[in-house]
Structure formats: structure tokens, C-alpha cells
Specification:
Elements: E1 6-9, E2 13-15, E3 18-26, E4 31-36, E5 40-45, H1 49-61, H2 63-71, H3 75-80
Antiparallel strand pairs: 1-3, 2-3, 3-4, 4-5
């Protein structure tokens, strides 16, 4: 995979009774989004099936780390930055 692959993590979101956190992997031409705790692919643009499996395995294996990143985010503070 491309060494310029970036990972972004959302804060925890809530829709009705469902909590979710989203993980986005992207480079200059490709993008894939995953949802935790379901550990499923939400969208994909440009990654092969093998690459998606590798990313999904990473998300599943690094679940605790990814949750810790999401818990540190405060969307209200991020919107208020100058």
C-alpha cells in the first residue's frame, strides 16, 4: 500500500440508540471509510478487495487504540478554533 496513506478518526457519534465511530483512510486518489463497533466498510473509492481486507483487519486489531483517539476529540472545540 501507499506510504502516504493517512488515517482520520471521528469522535463517537450517536444516531437513535446506536453509537458509532468512523475511520477514514485516504491518499491522493483513494478513500475508504469504516465503522466501529460494527467493523464494516462504509464506503470505498479505489482500494482493491485485498487492500480493504488489510485495512479492515487493521481497524479490527487496533480497535482500542482507535477508540482512544476518538475519545480525545471534541467536535465543539474543533469548530470554535480560530
Amino acid at each position: 500500500m501507499n506510504e502516504d496513506l493517512r488515517m482520520s478518526v471521528s469522535s463517537m457519534t450517536r444516531t437513535k440508540d446506536k453509537k458509532a465511530l468512523y475511520v477514514l483512510f485516504q491518499d491522493d486518489t483513494r478513500m475508504a471509510e469504516f465503522e466501529l463497533p460494527a467493523c464494516r466498510v462504509v464506503s470505498n473509492k479505489g482500494f482493491s478487495e485485498d487492500e480493504l481486507k488489510q485495512l479492515l483487519d487493521y481497524v479490527d486489531g487496533q480497535r482500542e487504540y482507535i477508540y482512544s483517539l476518538g475519545k480525545k476529540l471534541n467536535p465543539i472545540k474543533a469548530m470554535m478554533k480560530d
